[in-house]
Amino acid sequence: MADNSRVIKLEGISFSYPGSNIKVLDHLNLEINKGDRIGMMAPNGSGKTTLLHTIMGLCRPDSGTIEVFGKLLKKEKDFIPVRSKIGLLFQDSDDQLFCPTVLDDVTFGPLNLGFSPQDAIDTARKTLERLGIQTFEQSVTHRLSGGQKRLVALASVLAMEPAVLLLDEPTAGLDNRVKEKLIHILNDLDISYFVISHEFDFAKAVTDKIYSMENGKILTDDEIHIHRHEHVHKHGKHPHIHK
Amino acid sequence: MIEEKFASGQSFIHQLDPKIRIIASIVLSFAVALCDNLYIAGGYFVIATVLITMAQLKWWDVIIRLKPLFWFLLMIWIILPLTFDGDIIYQYSWLKITGPGVLLCCKITIKSITILLLFTALIATMTIASLGNGLHRIHVPDKMVFLLLMSYRYISVIEEEYKRLLRAAKFRGFKPGTNLHSYKTFAYLAGMLFVRASVRAQRVYQAMLCRGFNQKFHTLDVYPSNRLNLHFLIGIFLASLSLVVVEVMWV
User: Is A202 within a domain?
Assistant: First the structure.
């Protein structure tokens, strides 16, 4: 595989929280290439969020190397230019939307990238329109519903035109209508993404391969195969246990 | 939840640049606070009522806004006339009401109501976002401006978290009372709220870093300057200046 198609490469990453002996990430390897649409399904507390934060340089690993766009990232300074190229959607949209109005929030990223106010507004409007939420532009962020907040948070990430998107449980707490919309939006994107989800149907609809995590390591397609059975049996509606 | 009841409107005041309104309210409120004559203060009161009328606010809503102030003033009216030294104008056994005390009460009443009316007319008629924008453009430090904006943004989130914690306590049979258990529970709630707020602050900061935050704040400046703003500011300056001159020269 050509080197320029590799977006993110983690090698031998280990991480444990200060004061704890448990290794949340244990010699973990991960590669995300251009055009990859990877899903991640794993139990709570298996280190999925920590993994995303490690890629963004928000958690510093105890050992291992992080390579983004072929560049080795070590210090805080190395991560700064990379962060604008990787979009991270947080689990809780309230953490991500901190400006008074939607437009302020969506322009925050572009303004930090050095856009002029007018260019930032144009980019923000285009992004909002793409997600079909242009009517919220002047809305006050904290009065939006959960689903609206999630879409605005996604817009605020996409407005920076990232090369790869990391989504941390994007469907948590959303109803089916917003989920459908998210599926539609993600399938329309032409950038690679890595999505953590607990919902099989959602993960299946938006990704090409699904990984899992166990003991701080990533299990790829070859090692696991998450799937669902539909079956008929004679217990009827009585409770029963599967073996 | 903070309501911005007066912020949406189409009046002349609403269309003024936030920066101009902030400067005007600062100038006027300083002039009011420093004036020492009851009649001059009355003059400022007239200006404030004119501004409220110009902003097309409903008087009843404005009076409801002033309610907390009325409680404060009531306390002053009870205490000051009885305790201030000076000529006695009314005496009932050991209770003495003094002339200067009543005069001081009148001054405090009219000045405080005037300042609040000014702020209602000029500042409450803009959204917090515009206020932040205006403060930024009169060169208030960015950190202060963002402190204001973030407090506004997260106060409802913190309230929500407080309600959630209190609900959880109530569902488990907690009844507030005057006993050690209640105090302890409220202390736990407050402590938990602080912990959650600081954890959230950390996450918000991480989210900001992820979007390229580099310790510098940018705002969307979209208020064009027009002549109306300048005329309004000159009008306010002249009005307060003339009242100050009158007070210094003739009173």
Answer: no
Q: Beta partners for B91?
A: B96
CA separation for the pair A109, A122 (Å, rounded): 13
Name the residue range of residue A151's domain: 86-158
B218 and A101 within 8 Å at the Cβ level: the answer is no
A152 located within any domain: yes
Q: Where are the domains of chain B?
A: 12-126+223-250, 140-210
Q: Do B214 and A92 touch (CB under 8 A)?
A: no
Q: What is the pTM of this model?
A: 0.74
Answer for the pair A121, A101: CB distance below 8 angstroms, yes or no: no
- What's the one-letter identity of residue B52? I
* Angle, helices B99-122/B67-83, rounded to nearest 10 degrees: 160
ipTM surpasses 0.95: no
pLDDT in tens, A63-95: 999 999 888 988 888 888 888 889 999 988 888
CB pairs under 8 A between A and B: 86
- C-beta separation of A156 from A137 below 8 A: no
E-assigned strand segments in chain B:
88-92, 95-98
Q: Which residues of A touch B127 (CB under 8 A)?
A: 100-101, 140
